[in-house]
């Protein structure tokens, strides 16, 4: 997922652009951590537990993507 920030009418300096880049990188790492943790936790469940939750193993990645990225 790529984040693009557009600020019209303002010319950002190098320090602001680096700061924005680092914030976006930190946000991306945080979202990926949520994705990996969700996949890990769902994969640890038994097939019966997943069935009780209405989740198939094939949909784990899609559920983790939704949890982390909202897509």
TrEMBL record:
Task: Please list the residue ranges annotated as the YjiS-like domain.
Answer: 28-58
The protein here is known as: DUF1127 domain-containing protein
Organism from which the protein derives: Albidovulum sediminicola
For this protein's source organism, the top of the classification is:
Bacteria, Pseudomonadati, Pseudomonadota, Alphaproteobacteria, Rhodobacterales
